[in-house]
Amino acid sequence: MRSLLDILDFSTDELSSLMNRANDMISHPEFYRHVCDGRQLATLFFEPSTRTRLSFESAMLALGGRVLTVTGSDSSSMAKGESLADTARTVSCYADIIAMRHPLEGAARVAAESATIPVINAGDGGHCHPTQTLADLFTIYREKGTFENLTVGLCGDLMYGRTVHSLIAALSRYPGVNFILISPVELQIPDYVRFSLLEKGIPFEETTSLEDALPRLDILYMTRIQQERFDDHSLYLALKDSYILTPNKMTLAHPEMAILHPLPRVNEISPDIDKDPRACYFKQVYNGKMMRMALIIELLFGKSQPQPGTPPLYLNRLCSNPHCVTRFEYGLIPSFYAVKGEKDTYRCRYCDHLAET
Amino acid sequence: MRSLLDILDFSTDELSSLMNRANDMISHPEFYRHVCDGRQLATLFFEPSTRTRLSFESAMLALGGRVLTVTGSDSSSMAKGESLADTARTVSCYADIIAMRHPLEGAARVAAESATIPVINAGDGGHCHPTQTLADLFTIYREKGTFENLTVGLCGDLMYGRTVHSLIAALSRYPGVNFILISPVELQIPDYVRFSLLEKGIPFEETTSLEDALPRLDILYMTRIQQERFDDHSLYLALKDSYILTPNKMTLAHPEMAILHPLPRVNEISPDIDKDPRACYFKQVYNGKMMRMALIIELLFGKSQPQPGTPPLYLNRLCSNPHCVTRFEYGLIPSFYAVKGEKDTYRCRYCDHLAET
Amino acid sequence: MRSLLDILDFSTDELSSLMNRANDMISHPEFYRHVCDGRQLATLFFEPSTRTRLSFESAMLALGGRVLTVTGSDSSSMAKGESLADTARTVSCYADIIAMRHPLEGAARVAAESATIPVINAGDGGHCHPTQTLADLFTIYREKGTFENLTVGLCGDLMYGRTVHSLIAALSRYPGVNFILISPVELQIPDYVRFSLLEKGIPFEETTSLEDALPRLDILYMTRIQQERFDDHSLYLALKDSYILTPNKMTLAHPEMAILHPLPRVNEISPDIDKDPRACYFKQVYNGKMMRMALIIELLFGKSQPQPGTPPLYLNRLCSNPHCVTRFEYGLIPSFYAVKGEKDTYRCRYCDHLAET
């Protein structure tokens, strides 16, 4: 039995296989309408994320399955006084697969360790949201036919956006990809992402100018810049318009460039661009549903096994992350893994933050 | 592709066709059990209305379809920071048809303009609620076999009750209908409804006495009188009992008169009347489900096209209605239509209120 | 047509028949996958109880039926200004069967009296929760093959736990059952339960020591002790650990003893026990789903009729219970029944509390 907690849980071969299946679903929807007859997906959303929930539910229903929904005030009643492990074990008695969203980082792993059915991480705090990355990858693949030798621009808040970090990690496994990282200085990628790119020898450049980058991009991945990230309000005002994609700026872009956005957008892409054939963000929504369908089939019926991980280290230390699930889950003992090439460095098995020293 | 935003979007022929189909469903439910297999209805309720939502969901399930539900705290998360247009476009990637309830007037039209699937207005603020009118019309039709030459009494709050205005507009298209409008002076029909009746030459009278009207009615449509509508509390106390329908008052009514009520009732119809064969308000609930089933089939599979409307006028003015969706929706430019016979009068294409001067 | 409001509504023969069907479902799930095709269950949860709701919904979906869900803020909108009787009658127009949870005691009976479809009580305040007892009974039956001659230990809060009272009442109908009641003195069973056991001549003993009782038990039914039940906090501290089931204490128990718990647990059973083959509380969750499936089939398709009850007595008195539904439901006249053997004693037909004198 297998779960999806982090996009890197799946090898590039496994991702190819998922994308092939999603393509086949688009060509032959009639073959898939009853694949999940009699199966139930439980969507456990301890934090609201309506688009993600609908995408999962719509995917399961399109496969002929049924859905059990836990959300809103319901989820707070479930959370109250019961461990996540018990909740996951209980829901395993009702459903065949779980998609879980939770504000604590590492929550999906706790659920997966206790559940007797597959668990899909539909977002655990600021940690991972792998099915968004599935949607992003499949959109790039459908638009470009390949991941190799692409110039990918990522624009906006590159510091806090987990979808950006996850997409960088996923694309870094394909040869010839290079990144142009477009952001205000305040919102550049975190050091650990930069070090990882350097270590793997992946070409990237950092710039503050969307206009400069645009002509060179195969893919433009837009994200939202949030006002509250800036200490200096006048700086925010100065910057905010420079990252709004307008028809005027689009004249600088290649006629085949694809625009992606994880949505919801606020105003960072002008609605006037929606009819531009390069706008792929609503296709991306559809592609996300298709990949979730492929994923549900894989986890319910696939033969693949998770790769054996490194054994957990019990260090008698706490995780340094205040939002880590290990700080809140009753009866859970923190455990860690060693980091290759970093001596005496241990990261939390649940949220990947450093162990406290 | 077609949506239902206002009851007048459908011609009387189209309404007849819907009612014929609903009748056929009642006679031959077995023919309809799988009509919507593989189709999904999204109920987007940005404001709670549990009865209406259940009616839509039950209708879709009875047709073999599936349901995606957005409601409560979930809907507030969806509303937050995303335009209604983007929400409708996103949900179009997941579902085949949308039923939407929203507190802003005109919201359903905004969604329909952006969605790539049919949109049913399940209530947009105080503006329209056409599927309630479908339930009302079908109940009258089933009880009386015709709309022609009926004397229809409408009782209670005739000023603010949108179901009343919508029913008057819908019935005014049938020959021989006449209205007896029973209400306190404070809660008489608004001027625009009165002018419209006069203009069309439809007979109506206004009275404050339910007892006087009762003997002459074929249909009695009851609504609730809300205490908060009265400036003068003693007046409210004096009036409130006179509009409560009791078994005693029912002795004045014709033995074939049908009592309708949009529900929920509070105390304006005594529970003692529920067993009177003239009480049709629970039948009306059932009829509402049947009409929603017929409507879903029509919008998903029907060949009819919307009638070409008048082109939008962009006047560089605002809508005068503080609850109009054009005042809140990001990127939406207000547009208007000219009113026949009223020189220099323009109404909002979304909520039908006047343009600001 | 039949409803389930109280576990004693079903005779022991009827319970056997339900359990036989549940067993058959476990052996031959394929025979039941489409039993409820085209049927709809409405889950009306006016108070959150996510586990119970999921169990019902999962049960209905596994039978091929569909589900309408009312919960959270939705339910508060439904409750507002409409009588429970009207709500139940309205939902009868949409669904084929109702499972209702409500904070008021007796609420399920009010719904059942007005609904035109079967109503299952999924918990009415502190009054009844009969489907939990179905799960408990079926688990005992599957583990032990019989109810006869069992020694059943009930541990924890025996005063306020309605599942405990209901299980005692249900088991008291089988020959040879005896009880060991393990609780702090403050949380012993209420007098009416004790009198009932004495009256029926059922052997029981009361003890404060879990360790003393453990070696003699066939069944251990654990419940949670809530801190807020104690006036004396130091007493709570002294007691709380003595009722936590640990691997160490389990060495005292019979190798075939079955541990049950209605869940959620907080810390009264150590997670280390979950892998002990005697731990049956997650099986109990699964068994609860199976019994709900059997119950839905019985109520939708069974031929059995409710036993004629005693006629209601209208005494022109109120029920003494401040949480009784008769104190809140518009238009409901309190009614009572006489208590056998107790002269001039009347109990409320809705919540079973005494009439005010």
Give a verbal description of the structure.
Three copies of one chain form a homotrimer. With 357 residues, chain A is of the alpha/beta class. Helices cover 35% and strands 14% of the residues of chain A. Chain A contains twelve helices and eleven strands. In chain A, the strands form three sheets. The first copy, chain A, has a five-stranded parallel beta sheet with strand order 7-6-5-8-9. In chain A, strands 2-1-3-4 form a four-stranded parallel beta sheet, with helices on both faces. In chain A, strands 10-11 form a two-stranded antiparallel sheet. Chain A is globular and about 55 Å long. Chains in contact: A-B, A-C, B-C. The interface between A and B is medium-sized, with 27 and 27 residues.
